[in-house]
Every structure is written in structure tokens, then in C-alpha cells.
């Protein structure tokens, strides 16, 4: 994982690269994030974080990970792959409520009053989960006062542009340029280019 | 010279420790705090400087050791811009904990609206609360531009000594008495050797500003040392019954008593201190720290002026 920081203060750049790495370690995301680029210009009130994630597992339908059968008006779900158990349970609780979803054991779930036909086409999307976790990491990193934020989200890249007051067009353009290049596969090991241009770097 | 006290901590066993208490009383000193853990005990005491030799000899005889606690008898507030996870608990709590090792009582505080740059602010109430302490440590972030241009507003008008701890190397900063750089924002405890060195540096900086404040007080000494007042307040029943940790906290120029002002005002006021009522030689006010009373002892010259005026 490579974290590249571009900004106007060397000390802050170094510390923020370390901070982001620590936050990703704390959240257990180091293996799921390929790299990140940060633009930090405190004097312009601009902080941009762009993160490229590794490909998450493909979306799966419930019958691909569990056996479904009918039992006295309820659907009995026997999970085959344990790693899907927590997200599946969370999804069912969210959709049908805790009263109707009973967890019988580690790998068995009973869905009261829910026919198989309603469960067959449900999808678990681990990519969505990863995006939420990465967004949480970015929010932990961004300065607390930079509350005006815009998110740019692609399949495997997430960019957050933040500032303290109103979001300016210039900031959006900078963020969008970075986001585009991250999507196109910006090489974080060799990347040195400034997004604000030489003149503005001296602010 | 009633006020020339030195604060030391005895670290040893409980066996014959009463002899130490008696000696401290005989030489005119005071016990500030006792913390007993099974058969071990630490005793913080204020003793007249010239009798230090006698206390050292007694500590040796009892098989304990004497530790310098340069911040004993002070209460220090460590302030962060907010209580959010961006600023708390690290490194603010590490700094507060390290200052405790030098004898200070510390309080950690987060401002309500201290986040951001231009939006960072401190309220009059927060400022008044901070000014009840002997010194304040402001812990700020990683960007020099942000600290120099905006965050200085947070401590600009604070009227007690301020030490600022921040990340970037800034040669100097206005409105503060001490500056420690190289700490900044962290998401984990300060455990590495270089981080502990920074904590030490912070403690030294705070000691320096406390020392300076002590010198200023010595120029126009207090009528009575706060430890002497503490000894009298301890006799009050509801202070004895108080379950709050450290019900009486010493300040350089007074005390904080953790009993409600309305309840305690009269009794505290009528305490006898060298044939005077306490309220004649100190100002007693409610503290902004909930359910507490603040006592500020007047200087000798203030008491004399007051006495002269009342005689006329």
C-alpha cells in the first residue's frame, strides 16, 4: 500500500501519511486498500483524499452461499460458507427486522413468514461494505473542522474533497482531476505531479 | 517566613510512617496527600525548606525514598480543540498523565467549538473556567499555517500561563509562555522513546512556567500558604465525608474545595486562620467546576491594606 501526500507543509504531509496508515491498520483495511493520494493545502482550506481499493468479492445471491428450504411457513437457511454469515444476518435483519429473523446457530437462520421466493434473489455485495469502511477511515483522517465535503465514487476509487467554508469550483476541479487519474490507474509509486500548479504551491 | 515551603513525596512502607507525620508536624509542615496501596504508601508533604535535612534523614531511617515533585500543589488544565476523536484521547491524555507523575493534579478539557481554522473559537465561560487553574497546556495540530494564523486566538486572552504543544517546528508563538513542538495529532498512545522524550520536554516546560509563577508570588507573598488553609478545611464534616477524588486541591495561590459553594460558604468563611476569619484573608467564590468552591488567598500586602482601611 502506497500513500502519497502532496501539500504545502512537509511536516504535516509526513504526519498525515503516517496517520492514514495507522487508521487503516486500526480498521483492518491495509490489505483491502491499494493506495491513496492526499492533497493537503491548509492555507487554502482544502483537503482531498483519494483512495484506490482492491477489488472486493463479487456480489453473490443467497442460494450461492446457503441452502434454502421451507419449514412450517418459515424459510430455513443453512449457510455453507461461514465468512458470509455475519453480512447475511445483518442484511436480513435490516430488510425484515429482528423479530422475523431468528439465528438458530452459527450457520443456521430461520426467516419467519418469509417465502423462499423473496430470499432467492437477494444479493450480498461485499464491495458496498468495503466502501463504507473506507469512507469511515477517510472521515477519521479529515480535519474535524473541514465539514463541507463532496464524495466522488467509482468502482474501486473513492475521493472526498473537503473544506471549511463553501465548496469552490476550483476545489471540485482539483478533486475531480485527481479522482479521474486515480480511476485511470495513477502510479502512486512514481507520482510526483502537483495538482495545484507551481505558482499556487507557494501560497 | 511562613510561606517558604518545599513539596516532597515520600515513597515507602507504612511501618512507622506515623513517625514521619509527627516530624512533619513538629517542623511546621503539612501532609498534602496520602495514597496507601496495601503496605506501601506515598505521602506528599509541604515542609519548610530549611528542615529538608531532617525529613531526608527520617526517610532513610524508615527505608523509603524522597522524590522531587516539582508540580505538587498545582492544578493544571490540558485543553484540546474538541472532545472528538480527532483530538482526544491522544496525545492530550498522555500529557495529562505525565504531568501527574510530577505531582500535578490535571484536568482534561475539550472546547465546544475549537475545531477548524477560522471557525475555531473559545467562549467566555470556557476562558473563565481555564483561568481557575494554575497553568494551561493547549494541545494543537500539525499545520504551522493553521496554528500561527488561527489557533492562537484560542489562548490569546487567557490570563494564566499557557504552554502550547503542537506538531510543526515553529520558532516562537505569541500569547504563550512555553512552546513544545514535534507532538501534533496522533491516533495511538505515545509509547516510543522519542515520544516519551517529548512528554518529558512538555513536563519541563510546564515546570518552568510554574516556577516563574511561584517567583512572582514570592515577590508579594501570600498571607498564608494554601496547605495551611487546607489543614483547617479538612476538619469540616462534609469535606471529610466527600467521596470525590482529591476533595481539596491545592493551587499556587489558593485552593479548590469540592463541596458546593452554597453549602460550604459560611463554614469556610468562618474558619480561623491566625486569628482572622478566612474570608478576611481570601476571596471565596463558586467554582465553574460543578459543585466546587474556589478560594484565592490574598497577599500579605493586600491583607495589610484591608486591615488599615478597616481601622480608619
Could you list the spans of chain A in which at least 5 consecutive residues all have pLDDT below 50?
198-203
Oligomer: heterodimer
Largest sheet of chain B: 5 strands, parallel
Spell out the helices and strands of chain B N to C: EHEEHEEHEHEHEEHHHEEHEEHEEH
Backbone CA Rg of chain B: 21 Å
The number of strands of chain B is 15
DSSP, total strands of chain A? 11
| Count of DSSP H/I helices of chain B | 11
Rg of chain A, Å, rounded: 22 Å
Mean of the pLDDT scores of chain A? 88
Strand order of the largest sheet of chain A: 1-2-3-11-10
Helix content of chain A: 25-40%
Cα-to-Cα separation, first versus last residue of chain B? 28 Å
Nearest-integer average pLDDT of chain B:
91
Helical residue percent band of chain B? 25-40%
Question: What general form of chain A does the structure show?
Answer: elongated
Percentage of β-strand residues of chain A: 25-35%
Keywords:
heterodimer, A: 6 helices, 11 strands, 31% strand, elongated, B: 312 residues, 15 strands
